[in-house]
Amino acid sequence: MAIFLIYAIIFIVFEDYDRKVFEPLNEISDWHLLIFSIVIMIILGILLYRYSRRMDERIKNEQEMKQTLMRRQLTQNISHELKTPVASILGYTETIVSNPDMPQETRNRFIERTQLQAQRLSTLLKDLSILNRVDYAPHVISMKRVNVSQIVAGIVQDVDIAINAKHMTINNYLPENIIIKGNESLIYSIFNNLIDNSINYAGEKATIDIFACEKDNYWNFRFCDNGEGVAQEHLQHLFERFYRIDNGRSRSMGGTGLGLAIVKNAVLQHGGSISVANMKEGGLEFTFTLEK
């Protein structure tokens, strides 16, 4: 629009491109042409403004519809995930209460199953709490100097029993004293969820390797295993909430479907990025960065 106005003024004032000297508009037709050009410019401006307003409103409505659909889907997923452990807990407890003469061995087995479902429910609520904190209250997340190396070393010790039960090996190649400004709880969630994911899905006798290298203003991490890997069509969905490759298998292993979503959100909260890919020799490789 501005280019059109400039072109119109130059053409009218100089009449052609050969004239090098400015001359006033003496002919009435020149004034009419200039006014006409200005009017056209104003009309075009109004039309463009109205069009941009309509486009902005359309984009806003589409985004709101998308967010509403995502919230509705998330609510349905949460409801579905909560329903299973709650139904199991109610079923076991009602059976115990309504059968006072139940054999002690059976009663103990039902109590153990009730406890497992309660633990699963507690884990799900904890994961939802972490995601809500990252999504809706990132400003209240405290940041301080965090030793990532110590956190990962502690996690490796904590999962020792689970690792040995599946005859797996975990190699922690992180340098000593990786220090960043971050949230200790979220940093713990990143590595704990990645390790849990490999333990649950990499398969028996798999090996987990954790690497890191220092860059200018961030640390670059590689977390990989030599397990079964994931079909290519599933890779782009792995960080989505409640996304499961195999629903039955995931639930039987106690997964909430939120672990990798927490990993991605926690990495983003620390100014980093994350990606996942299948390795040529088999297994998954997560690559992510954390700002210093």
Can you characterise this structure?
This protein is an alpha+beta fold and 292 residues long. The protein folds into 2 domains: 2-60; 143-291, Heat Shock Protein 90, CATH 3.30.565. The chain has helices at 2-14, 28-98, 104-136, 148-158, 160-165, 184-201, 232-235, 247-252, 259-269, and strands at residues 144-147, 169-172, 179-182, 207-214, 218-225, 274-278, 284-291. A 5-stranded mixed sheet has the order 2-4-5-7-6. Strand 6 (274-278) and strand 7 form a beta hairpin. Helix 1 (2-14) packs antiparallel against helix 2, helix 2 runs antiparallel to helix 3 (104-136) and helix 6 (184-201) runs antiparallel to helix 9 (259-269). The model has no long low-confidence stretch (mean pLDDT 81).
